Input
Amino acid sequence: MKSTEPVRVAVNIRPLLTSEGCTDCITVTPDEPQVHIGSHTFTYDLVFGNNGLPFSEIYHRCVAPLVEDLFKGYNATILAYGQTASGKSYTMGTNCGADGGGIIPKVMEDVFTRVEAVKSQIRISFLEIYNEEIYDLLAASKPSRAPIRIRETNSGEITLQGVTEVQVKTKEEMSSYLARGSSTRATGITNMNIQSSRSHAIFTISVKITTAEETLCAKIRLVDLAGSERANRTGADGIRLKEGRHINSSLLALGNVIKILGGNERNKKKGVCHIPYRVSKLTRLLQDSLGGNSKTVMIACVSPAITDVEETLSTLRYANYARNIKNKAVVQKQKPSTPCFDAMVKELTPSNSDAKNKTVVQKHTPSSDYDAMVKELTPSPSKSESLPVYDKMCMIRRMCSKLFLSLRSHGLPKQLGLMIFLPPPHHLQS
Ligand SMILES: Nc1ncnc2c1ncn2[C@@H]1O[C@H](COP(=O)(O)OP(=O)(O)OP(=O)(O)O)[C@@H](O)[C@H]1O
Output
């Protein structure tokens, strides 16, 4: 099942801090998700803080529906976005709270309440993007940690090589991993925040639910971004300055992706359809969350202080673009396991390497014949895309029997002839 829906956007206005000693520059229309700042007015899905909904409602209104959908097999993302010291870590609960609150601890509680009723397996991973490198926050020890590489599968799925995925059985166990990873995460003191995140953090909970009929495998990503900052206000120099530059450039890349996706109708008319996900690691990792296979809520965190008015306006503008992003979430069903077929493949396959198998076939088949055969058996995308699923399956079956006969006619051993060596046509993979 596929669900096309826009990214939902909530704005969270944190209270003025005593250290700020200035006036408030945002007002909220009573009972409306609408904020006013100077002569600008913006409307969102939800507004918390100031005269909007109480902060205590944020989990119930923004996150609980996604956790419910997670158990129906949909991927989900909660993304906290905003300038430095706007309350992102406080909102997400990645600072492992002096205040003990935040979204992630409540997600954990909700997940473990729900798993009691179903047969399930829970795994977690925790990453940070620091100075444009990805690090594993659950890796054994900090000095030995090496950056993690991004890999993209043939179907365009982003995977991370060698990332630690831990299976957890209790909420307490999961909390201890969050605390451990958070303490490893890069933070530092700046003039604007005594505990400023110097990296983007992504805490992922993967859930595998098995029922008599099916197995669902979905994940929820809880993202606490580092905040945009201006060196003249944070007082950053040396390492802090370098960190700030990396933070700003990855947020700029994210902002561009949001702007292009969010302005899509206008861009389509102009013929702009390339989304620059590859510009930074942050956008590559969030590719599915923005414009892809995920139900996503963005929480735009803002400070009400008049001294932050420019940054607040910038956050509100990007949040406004994000509301136009359309995602296509698909129920994540595990492919049914076919023990007989698997056993047969295992028995007949001398090695797992496709390349090696292909070489074996080519050895038994004159190269011109091999190329002609590939051409003949690979249908054109336009032809196959318009076919209903049943017809596609019949076509694949015809292709298989043709291939089998061709291989046999070239004297290929009977056992090898049973295998399909052609790379699957890209447009048929889904
Ligand atoms: N809703 C809130 N109620 C009370 N205090 C808050 C709230 N939100 C944030 N704060 C306070 O604001 C300060 C900055 O918050 P936080 O560290 O979460 O910001 P941040 O956006 O994560 O910053 P950075 O990007 O620098 O990491 C902290 O002192 C935090 O306790």
